[in-house]
Design goal:
The protein is α/β, with parallel strands linked by helices. It has nine helices and seven strands. Strands 1, 2, 3, 4, 5, 6 and 7 form a seven-stranded mixed sheet that branches. Helix 3 packs parallel to helix 7 and helix 6 packs antiparallel against helix 7. The radius of gyration is 28 Å and the shape is globular. The two termini are 21 Å apart. 31% of the residues are buried.
Length: 264
């Protein structure tokens, strides 16, 4: 079963990569890649690293934000939020400038914790709530060891939310593609219906045309009431393998950020 899940995870990983628009892959060949994947815990093979680094560069460029992944075995047993803040202060990432627009996912393999933080533009667009949505999306894959797939979902989630202005509910049905299709089909149905109704003459035949009033009427009416049954069912509380807490903060270098943390 574990072997089967591993095969499925690999197939999903490359399925997502193949979904990347071809023009973006073409740009990757002509644009110098920035190192955005810092896999100190050695969770990825070289092929996975190359795919993720390419995706982070291309999707980050579209949103003018560095999308970073940092994994560590945490030999000094530091707090995952503190490690993320020190990483930002020490490396100074940012698409537009040093210590600029950036979002960081930090994996603490020692304590099995993950922390997401958004800086500057990413702090505004990826607030605590949106980062938590992304974290909840990737946690099952992190728990199952599907790190490459989880990191792809993180990159795609960041790319999605950075396109939705702050203060707008990113889960609104108005952002769902199926709603747009349903509206289009509904409007088309209304237009076609009006065209059909206006194409013929006025309908003059109705119920009274064929009804004999002298013989028409209600023959019988009967209501039967038997009994009412009430059942009680206990509603179980859902449980999750990930704990959450914290939020944003400010680094030692004075850079504020949004944040979301949890275990996996």
């Amino acid at each position: 079963m574990k072997k089967y899940r591993a095969i499925v995870a690999v197939l999903l990983f490359f399925a997502v990569f193949l979904a990347v628009p071809m023009e973006m892959k073409g740009e990757a060949a002509t644009t110098e890649m920035k190192p955005l994947i810092f896999d100190e815990a050695s969770l990825l093979n070289q092929e996975e690293y190359d795919v993720l680094n390419s995706m982070a560069n291309q999707y980050g460029a579209e949103r003018e934000t560095d999308i970073i992944i940092y994994t560590t075995n945490n030999p000094d047993n530091m707090d995952v939020m503190k490690m993320t803040q020190d990483f930002y202060d020490d490396h100074g990432p940012g698409y537009d400038r040093a210590h600029g627009n950036a979002v960081i996912l930090t994996m603490d393999m020692r304590n099995r914790e993950v922390y997401l933080a958004g800086f500057y533009k990413a702090e505004r667009y990826l607030d605590d709530d949106r980062l938590t949505k992304i974290r909840h999306e990737i946690t099952p894959d992190l728990t199952n060891g599907n790190y490459g797939l989880a990191f792809q979902k993180y990159i795609l989630g960041v790319h999605k939310y950075l396109a939705i202005r702050p203060g707008v509910n990113p889960d609104s049905i108005f952002f769902k593609g199926w709603l747009h299709l349903a509206i289009a089909l509904g409007l088309a149905s209304i237009i076609v219906g009006k065209m059909v109704s206006s194409s013929g003459g006025r309908v003059t035949v109705n119920r009274q045309t064929y009804e004999d009033a002298s013989t028409s009427g209600v023959l019988a009416h009967q209501d039967l009431y038997t009994h009412t049954t009430t059942t009680k069912r206990k509603i179980e509380k859902s449980s999750s393998s990930s704990s959450s807490g914290g939020g944003g903060g400010t680094t030692s270098g004075g850079h504020s950020h949004s944040g979301s943390r949890g275990s996996f």
